[in-house]
Each structure stands twice: as C-alpha cells, then as structure tokens.
Amino acid sequence: MTYGVSSGFVVLCVKIVHVTCTVVSVFGELLARPAEEGI
After folding, report:
1. Is the pTM of this model over 0.70?
2. Rounded distance between C-alpha atoms, residue 37 and residue 6, angstroms
3. CA neighbours within 13 Å on the CB side: how many for 39?
4. Radius of gyration of the chain from its Cα atoms, rounded to whole angstroms
5. Does residue 25 contact residue 17 with C-beta atoms inside 8 Å?
6. CB under 8 Å to 37, separation ≥6 — which residues?
7. How far, in Å, CA of 16 to CA of 3, rounded?
8. pLDDT over 60 (residue 38)
9. Contact by Cβ (8 Å): 9, 1
10. DSSP collapsed to 3 states, 1-39
11. pLDDT tens column, 9-22
12. Which of the four pLDDT bands, split at 50, 70 and 90, describes residue 36?
C-alpha cells in the first residue's frame, strides 16, 4: 500500500514539474518575441 501511494506521488510530482516547465517555456517564448509579433 505504501509503495502504491509513494509511486503515485512520484508520478504526480513528475507531471507537475513537466507542466510547470512547459508553461515556463511557453511564456518565455512569448516574452522573448517583440510585442507586435505576439498574440
């Protein structure tokens, strides 16, 4: 039971880190461009 909980926690952490990195890279790309070429 403990193993299942800890492995689920690790998967959750990995997903959170992945989403955070994706969001940061997307925002970085948007900020790196000139405002005129943005959204």
Report:
1. no
2. 45
3. 4
4. 17
5. no
6. none
7. 20
8. no
9. no
10. CHHHHHHHHHHHHHHHHHHHHHHHHHHHHHHHCCHHHCC
11. 999 999 999 999 99
12. low
